[in-house]
Automatic annotation (TrEMBL):
It is found in: Cell membrane. Residues 8-385 form the Major facilitator superfamily (MFS) profile domain. Its main location: membrane. The chain crosses the membrane at residues 21-39, 45-65, 72-89, 95-113, 134-154, 160-183, 211-233, 245-263, 275-293, 299-319, 331-353, 359-378. It comes from the Bacteria. It is a multi-pass membrane protein. Keywords: Membrane, Transmembrane, Transmembrane helix, Transport. This is MFS transporter. It holds the Pfam family MFS_1.
Length: 402
């Protein structure tokens, strides 16, 4: 990785792994929480909503504050906050005490993502797509491993949640070693903005950003919808055993991780807009067709959709950061957290559809959302790197398309 600070990127990727592991443990152990605290379905819904709002929907707020008054110690503190929240869950005496612990856990995650993505941006050199992919894969792996939390606690008991403090504290210690480096980068970044460099002179593409948020929201909606409803669909429609249904989510996430690693380098070479556009148009027919396929083709379809959709996971973040270069942290929070949070509300709506009309209809509805994202890509502005290359050839002063 030329001009890439490998040590920094590695620490940030590990921090992302721990972050997404610790925040998703709450979701993974919901069945255990229901038994341990005697929760009703309404209380489970409230708990999920509180976790979602505190960890996802508030990320742009943290990003906005960070862009204005960036604090290099936030990264380390976010890991400690996550760990403390999970420890609070382990020792909560009742449901009422469980809620603030979940909020603390969520705030730790919300604070990490905007500054984590901005730090990756600073460490990337000329390989922003590749380094953002490495960062995002760390989070994807954390999400996948969090599924093992329920198995682990089944072996050691509910108090075993305290053991999850270990990766949290280790992550915090490593992230605190980046304070001086991050402070220097923030200072350089602030000086460039104050001097009126090309960074601040470039006009933000607000229309492009709006379209990108729609695309990322749809992508997150499809991903969450498939993860939630496809396993249930395979059980009820095809009679797959509950003990075997994990394989469908595993294939989707596995090829998604491969796509995430692949998408960044492809965007560095062929352009971010091109990769996003191609990904969405390839994904559309396979997403729409899934509920109509026979059982033997579902694995193949999930692999293709997972690879194509998640290949844009890192690309959309870098693309958005270049659209609004003066608001890197806020953009990261908007695309990583807020869009995912809104998509979560969409999946909740699909749950009502599934209750009323069946899983087959819910998957049809989810599939027909995909063309919206594909059509939005037709109006995306050219990415900044490709614009600079065109300008270098034509010797014309660049202006980012609005």
């Amino acid at each position: 990785m030329s001009d890439v600070n490998r040590r920094v990127v590695s620490i940030l990727a590990f921090g992302h792994f721990v972050n997404d592991f610790l925040i998703n443990v709450i979701t993974a152990i919901l069945p255990l929480l229901v038994v341990h605290f005697g929760l009703s379905y309404s209380q489970v819904g409230i708990l999920t909503m509180v976790s979602n709002v505190s960890s996802s929907l508030v990320q742009p707020i943290f990003g906005f504050i960070s862009d204005k008054k960036g604090k290099p110690w936030i990264l380390g503190m976010s890991a400690l906050c996550l760990s403390a929240g999970l420890l609070g869950v382990a020792f909560s005496p009742s449901y009422i005490w469980l809620l603030p612990a979940v909020v603390l856990n969520g705030i730790g995650s919300a604070a990490f993502h905007p500054d984590g993505s901005r730090a990756v941006y600073f460490a990337a050199g000329d390989r922003r797509g590749l380094t953002q992919s490495v960062f995002q894969v760390g989070g994807n792996l954390g999400l996948a491993v969090s599924a093992l939390a329920l198995w682990f606690l089944g072996k050691v008991g509910f108090g075993g949640l305290a053991w999850f403090m270990v990766p949290g504290v280790l992550s915090a210690a490593l992230l605190f070693t980046l304070i001086r480096w991050f402070a220097d980068r923030l200072s350089e970044y602030g000086e460039r903005r104050a001097q009126g460099s090309a960074l601040s002179e470039r006009r933000p593409s607000r229309i492009g950003m709006s379209l990108l948020v729609v695309i990322v929201t749809v992508r997150s909606w499809i991903m969450a919808g498939f993860m939630t409803f496809v396993p249930l669909y395979m059980i009820h429609h095809f009679g797959v055993k509950e003990s075997d249904v994990w394989a469908y989510s595993f294939v989707f996430l596995l090829f998604g991780a491969i796509g995430t690693v692949t998408g960044g380098p492809l965007a560095d070479r062929f352009g971010q807009r091109n990769v996003i556009r191609l990904s969405m148009f390839i994904s559309t027919p396979f997403t729409v067709l899934l509920p109509y396929l026979p059982k033997q083709f579902v694995f193949v379809d999930l692999a293709i959709v997972g690879f194509c959709l998640l290949s844009t996971f890192a690309v959309t973040v870098v693309y958005g950061q270049e659209m609004m270069p003066s608001n890197i942290a806020m953009v990261s929070g908007l695309l990583i957290g807020f869009a995912g949070g809104i998509a979560g509300l969409g999946v909740m709506m699909m749950g009502y559809v599934a209750d009323a009309y069946g899983l087959y209809v819910a998957l049809q509805w989810i599939g027909w959302i995909m063309p919206i994202a594909a059509l939005c890509t037709l109006k995306l502005p050219i990415d900044h790197i490709r614009l600079m290359q065109q300008v270098a050839k034509s010797q014309v002063t660049p202006t980012l398309a609005k």
